[in-house]
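thread from #wetlab-drylab

HS: before we spend reagent money on co-crystallization trials with zinc ion, can we at least see a predicted complex? here's what I'd submit
DV: go for it
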Amino acid sequence: MPFTPSTVLPGKAGRLLFTCAIGSVCTVVICDALHRTHAPPIDKDEPPAVSLRQRATPPAPPPAPPAPTRITESATVDQTFSEAAQSLGMGQSTIATLTDAFASKVDLRRDLRKGDTLSVIYDRPQGGTDVPDEPLAVRLTTGSSSHDVFLYRDPNGETRYYSEDGKSTKPAFSRYPVDFTRVSSDFSLRRLDPVTHRWQSHDGVDLAAPIGTPVRATAQGKVSFVGRQTGYGKVIMLENPPPYSTVYAHLSRFAKGIRNGGTVQRGQVIGYVGETGWATGPHLHYEVHVDDVAMDPLTVDLPGDDRLRGEERQRFAKEAQTLSVALSG
Ligand SMILES: [Zn+2]
């Protein structure tokens, strides 16, 4: 853009006015000068700083698109969550995302009953009938309890669902269930078992630690088994949010209150290191299963703690509160 300094206003030392044929920046500067009624008089012998033929008002900004209409819709669960979601216009990918988002709160396969309700909020663009596929807020009401998730779009345009306080709907996992001194045996698909002297796979890792060291759940979950099993000795099995499950074996004892069907939180002490079952020394045998397939607990991909923080979280919480009120309306 060709800029040429034309003149300096008297009394405005150092302040240059530019003239050029196009460019909103120049127009703004010129208008500023034109509307400066209290500006010092300009010497008549000097060329005018600006030509009056020049546009005196900046071009009007393009009209802002009309605000979208916020709509709330509900569906009654007849058979499945997926079916109810489809009836509200959601596609398979959004349904899968929401199934994950609710997984840590509701078991969508077992906990849903006929007559439960699914409510959503969309922003529908004015003049269009197309409803965006991803709802801004979703409430699932099962029996007397309800669970909400809210859409968050990060600066890159990626979307995720969060609970109202900005906590991720994905469960956070800890990598290690115990303070261990060393890995006494790695995960392997095939190894010679020191007790049975047979070749077999080792479906977990052995974390050596003194007897009595607390063992903690690496993620929230439901106790699917607590008791004794051949080989494992005293063992706890947890169903964590899908697709994960975890196993804690060779325990010396279980923590108080751990029972079949009970729930545990991430970090909760569930038992204590021992050497029950086929163990050659005190250690925790720990397994992580993804979709029922044993994976190496030391390297398996685990969902991290991606909660929102700081200002981002405050902004989100405010918007989520508004949406939550609308869902209740
Ligand atoms: Zn082991």
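DV: The chain has three domains: 1-62, 69-162, 182-295.
HS: ok that's useful, forwarding to the group
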